[in-house]
Amino acid sequence: MLSRFFSGNGKEEMCLEQGTRGLLEGRGRVFQGGGGAHPPGGRLRADSAALHVPQARFQVLRAEPVQRPAGEVGGGWGMPAGEVLAALFLALAAAWDLRVRRVPNWLNLAGVLAGLALGLSTGRPLAALAAAAGCFLVGFLFWRWGVLGGGDAKALPALGACLGSLPAALLALALGYWCLALYLLPRALRGKGLKGWWEEEKTALFFFLAGAGMPGKEKVPFAPFLLAGFLASEVVKAWLGGLRLS
Question: Where's the Prepilin type IV endopeptidase peptidase domain (predicted)?
């Protein structure tokens, strides 16, 4: 009897010791839980899964700060600062051109300097300088051929410096001419018809190729149409999925 009693205590102590060691090592059995015995580590895995659920929810709901590239403003729109600066410059140039029929030199110079300063602050000074130089060459040729006035021609380098991209500035210029053509076409067709308008355009093309302005040709302030062309280019780039011309 006594030997059985002592041998029973030894087994119970051994089971208790093994169960404690197994529980600490993650391999013990848990005999309570309302539904029978769990497999080894089952309770620990269930606890781990329960702990992972709120952690996963926290990761989904946690708001991360939005990292934007340098030189980008506009809150949720994410509009590049160069385009904001170009729009501001062209709006001032258009207002001045409509009022006094010219774009002042100080405004064009301020636009160039502001664009170069922006390029320097965003780490792209050479791109802004190259765009300004390319637009200056295009503006000089257009002024020499009588296509643009002096103030409008000098506004192109400012536009190129603000955008930091010669292709983007030339796209705005091309769309600006399209806007001007749409504005002048109804007036040109009124009274002279399509044939008369075509004859006049052929004559204007001849003077353009000859490098001289057509005499008697109506002078129209071009800065407002350059602004319209720039806005149209932004619409085109957004429609093409945020196209960036550099």
Answer: 85-182
Spatial distance between the Cα atoms of 41 and 87, rounded to a whole number of angstroms: 66
Of 150, 6, 172, nearest to 89 by C-alpha is 172
| DSSP category for residue 25 | H
Residue 187: both structure tokens together: 């007036």
Distance CA 29, CA 23 (A): 7
Token readout for 171 is: 């796209």
Give how many domains the chain has, as a whole number: 1
Tokens of residue 198, six digits: 């075509």
Domain that holds residue 133: 81-239
User: What span, in angstroms and rounded, lies between the C-alpha atoms of 127 and 120?
Assistant: 10
Residue 210 confidence (pLDDT):
47
pLDDT below 70 — which residues of the chain? 1-79, 187-218, 242-246
Please indicate, yes or no, if residue 186 is contained in any of the structural domains.
Answer: yes
How many other β-carbons are positioned within 10 Å of the β-carbon of residue 31? Answer: 9
Q: Let me know if residue 137 belongs to a domain.
A: yes
55 domain-assigned: no
Q: Is 9 inside a domain boundary?
A: no
Task: Give the pLDDT score at 232.
Answer: 95
